[in-house]
Structures are given as C-alpha cells and as structure tokens.
Design a protein that fits this description.
disordered N terminus; 250 residues; globular; 8 helices; seven-stranded mixed β-sheet; Rossmann fold; alpha/beta
C-alpha cells in the first residue's frame, strides 16, 4: 500500500462529497408536497447521519431516570439540541425540569491552543449570520409539538463558553446536570467547562465526547485526561460511531 493509501482515501472522500452534494439537490427538488415532507425525511437520512441519531438516542435513554438538565458544549447548527427536544417529547413529555441548554460562540473558535493539533484554526465552525434566531424557531417548533409548550425548556447560550458557563451556573445555582455532551473539539474550552460542571454531576450522570481519542484533534482527550483522569472511568462507545464515546458517573 505504502504512499498510495492516503491518495485512495482522498479520492474516495472527494467522490463521497460530490455524491452528497448531488443528493442535496435531490432533497431540494423533492416532488413530495410540503404538507407531507416532514413525515418523509427518512428518505434522505444516510447511514452516517442515522447512526449518529441512533447513538444520541442511546445516550438519552440512559438518563431518563437521572434528575437534572442536559447541556451541550459546542452546538454549531444545533441538531443535537433538536434531537434532545424530540427525545424528551417521546420519553418524558411532562418533565418540564429537563431543560436543554446549548453553549456556543456561533462565530467559530475564538482561539486555538497548541495542544489542539494542526487541522483547526481560529474562526473554524462558524455558522450563518443570525442563525441563532433560525435555530430558536426550530427548537420552539419542537416544543410546540409536545405538552406544556408554554414553559420554555431549551436555551441557547451564545458566547465564549469558558465565561458563559460560570455566568449560567451563577444565575442558576440549582442546576444539576444529568447529561453533558462535549463537541468543542478543543482543549481549553473542554477543560474549563469540565472543571466548571464537575460538582453539578450526580451518580448516573452521562458525559459524552465527540472527538475523544481522535489523532488529529488531541485537545479534547488531553482536557479529559487532566480534569477527570483517563484511568478513573470506563470510557464506553457504541459500534454505531468510531469516535463518539461517553462515561457514566458512578
């Protein structure tokens, strides 16, 4: 194989990206009428996306009997927040204390540490202008489909999470965390936010990680190693995803 393997991977990924862009056009030009489109989105879920949804579903089921809120650190387009809204509506529609809180700058990485590897840079993973308003509409819609819609149960915390997490916890001293999901990709915000929430976790709480053990994004692993210790917890994974993992507080 030698030096040919990276070229094969590169060509394969280019072909995959082209096919996916073609399939996006298929979705945009769907002949399905608008009043039936939402009920037929399964037509457009590929293996990768559906496997991720199923894994998030697995994690949510593990915290149904654990008291506390859900926090996601690094939401970008907010798909997980929307999924958590739906899962709550399915499994615990009357649990209005199960708040879902997402932290993100929504303007990309504010800075990058030398421990974060070579493939990320300041400003990566920004979103479209005014995207927060769009995401709020999406989350509000999902809440409207569930009981007790007049009680707002989701929140987007925009800004540098290394600061906003402390502001949030100060404003909400009652906070207990049942599920925290980390998708920052970076060392510093992962470390700071892990340290901030440690005393808000309870036995049975789940902490999920998006890039643990990722060779090109070492920052998340280093942060977990320094804050929690890799030898203190059983790091579990699902066969559905190569990198996504989680620990259970026991």
């Amino acid at each position: 194989m030698g030096n040919s393997e990276p070229n094969i991977i590169c060509k394969s990924s280019v072909i995959e990206r082209e096919k996916r862009l073609e399939f996006v056009d298929t979705l945009k030009n769907t002949p399905i009428p608008n009043n039936e489109l939402l009920m037929n989105l399964g037509l457009y879920l590929n293996r990768q996306l559906l496997s991720r949804i199923l894994f998030m579903h697995e994690l949510y089921k593990k915290i149904i009997n654990v008291h506390g809120v859900i926090m996601e650190f690094g939401i970008r387009w907010g798909q997980n927040l929307a999924l958590f809204e739906v899962f709550r509506g399915i499994y615990e529609p009357y649990n209005y204390t199960r708040k879902i809180i997402g932290f993100d700058t929504l303007s990309g990485f504010p800075s990058v540490n030398e421990k974060d590897g070579q493939i990320v840079k300041k400003g990566d993973y920004s979103v479209s202008e005014n995207y927060e308003e769009y995401l709020r509409k999406v989350l509000d819609y999902h809440e409207s489909e569930n009981p007790i819609p007049h009680i707002k149960k989701s929140e987007i915390i925009k800004g540098d999470a290394t600061k906003t997490i402390f502001e949030y916890l100060k404003a909400h001293p009652e906070t207990v965390i049942a599920f925290a999901y980390f998708d920052f990709d970076l060392y510093e915000p992962t470390k700071v936010c892990l340290e901030a929430i440690r005393d808000r976790l309870t036995k049975g709480s789940i902490i999920g990680f998006d890039e643990l053990n990722h060779p090109q994004l070492p920052g998340e692993t280093l942060a977990v190693k320094e804050v929690l210790g890799l030898d203190k917890y059983k790091i579990q994974r699902s066969p559905l995803n190569p990198y996504v993992s989680y620990i259970v507080i026991e």
